[in-house]
Design a protein that fits this description.
single chain; alpha+beta; two-stranded antiparallel sheet; 14 helices; 13 strands
């Protein structure tokens, strides 16, 4: 193999008798380079989008969420709550209760969800970082207050400087609906907005209003201690999986402990499928580019007919000659792969540092530049993909052509 590699390197870099062969060789390398570059960039863009959206959800969602597998709510007495508080690496535990609510302000009314949280909510989420007007305050001198989603406030025409309170209509759980008086099936209450938050996610900004959990329990007619879910704040990000495992063992099979991706499983699965499809499509395009190597190898082998005869006369077996040109074709693919990875890494670093490619439309986007995240796993994936496809693409034609030339020499 060492001899075959040395001969292949000599053939690859030696001056060709026909300049067109050099040009075709460089075209093959460039095609592989562009394919590897494109594949790395696309994977890094998906990483950036995944990270960006995860951070947006992280400003509202807790690190871990505990929910009952059956039923909408459960009582904190039904679980070892104190043991949960004392679990290693658990920084804070917040209680939450939510349900459907009809919001009304003036003549406008919009359906949404009322989310009751306790004083620990700002410790298990980044709510303070997404308040764009007012402040996160749920009670003030006995006055019930709340924080409203940006799009929900816009649909209601709600502003913080308005004196008129926000009217809430919540369903009466224990009362039957009277067709003649359907309004009696709802309980009304008032809320004074203290702030407006923006997560840049429609399912939050256009839906949620945050109140104190006691206010939510009163509105939904639930006794103290009733929750829809518990939010868990973990001390260190790298301990989330370990804490999730501990809590799952502590709470048993009747309760589900979800991390942030699992809390939005459908969305993140869709992103992973899109990333996989992009990888497969670009890999197919890369395979087409790599097949240019076949033409290059054919011309190289044709040019080295005399060298093949010389090697055979010196006792070289067909296997050695086959290895020489197979390695040469593989080296062409590797040269393109390494060039693409190097150039792609530089472009991605420039994008991360200087934001060269920006969104059009001014300041209407969450970030100004396209988010990208370069990971070593993607570098390895692209390198392995190019290496394997380059080897496979070169193996069959080299085997066929070398066998034919070797057979002609034997005649």
């Amino acid at each position: 193999m060492k001899i075959a590699l040395r001969i292949a390197l000599r053939y690859l870099f030696a001056k060709k008798s026909q300049n067109i062969i050099n040009i075709i060789s460089w075209i093959s390398v460039t095609g592989v380079l562009v394919g590897a570059l494109g594949l790395l960039v696309v994977l890094s863009v998906f990483n950036g989008l995944h990270s960006l959206i995860g951070n947006l959800y992280g400003s509202f969602d807790p690190d871990l969420k505990v929910e009952a597998r059956k039923g909408k709510v459960f009582h904190t007495d039904s679980i070892p709550y104190q043991a949960l508080l004392e679990t290693e690496d658990v920084r804070a535990v917040g209680q939450a209760l939510e349900d459907h609510t009809l919001f009304r302000f003036g003549k406008r009314q919009v359906p949404g969800r009322l989310l009751g949280v306790d004083e620990q909510f700002n410790k298990i989420s980044g709510i303070d970082s997404i308040i764009i007007d007012g402040e996160f305050r749920l009670r003030d001198k006995g006055l019930e207050e709340g924080v409203v989603g940006y799009l929900l406030a816009d649909q209601l025409g709600l502003r913080l400087n308005f004196v008129t309170p926000l009217l809430l209509y919540t369903p009466e759980r224990e009362r039957r609906i009277n067709p003649a008086r359907p309004d009696q099936a709802f309980r009304s209450s008032y809320l004074q907005p203290s702030g407006i938050f923006q997560v840049n996610q429609i399912d939050y900004d256009a839906t949620y209003t945050l109140v104190h959990i006691d206010k939510a329990r009163e509105a939904f007619s639930y006794p103290p201690g009733t929750v829809s879910w518990l939010g868990i704040g973990v001390a260190q990000t790298n301990q989330i999986d370990a804490v999730q495992s501990r809590l799952s063992s502590l709470l048993g099979p009747d309760y589900k402990v979800s991390n942030r991706e699992e809390q939005h499983a459908t969305f993140f699965k869709m992103m992973k499928v899109e990333r996989l499809m992009a990888y497969l499509i670009l890999s197919f395009i890369l395979l087409i580019a790599i097949f240019n190597v076949i033409g290059t190898l054919s011309m190289l082998i044709f040019e080295k007919r005399e060298s093949i005869a010389t090697l055979r006369s010196m006792g070289a077996q067909r296997r050695l000659i086959h290895q020489v040109f197979l390695i040469e074709g593989w080296l062409i693919s590797l040269a393109g792969a390494l060039g693409g990875l190097l150039l792609g890494g530089i472009l991605l670093w420039l994008q991360q540092t200087y934001g060269l490619v920006r969104f059009q439309g001014g300041g209407n986007f969450i970030v100004e530049a396209y988010p990208v995240v370069l990971r070593w796993q993607d570098l390895l994936t692209v390198f392995v993909t190019v290496s394997l496809t380059g080897f496979v693409a070169a193996w069959y034609p080299v085997r066929v052509i070398v066998r034919r030339y070797y057979a002609e020499l034997q005649q």
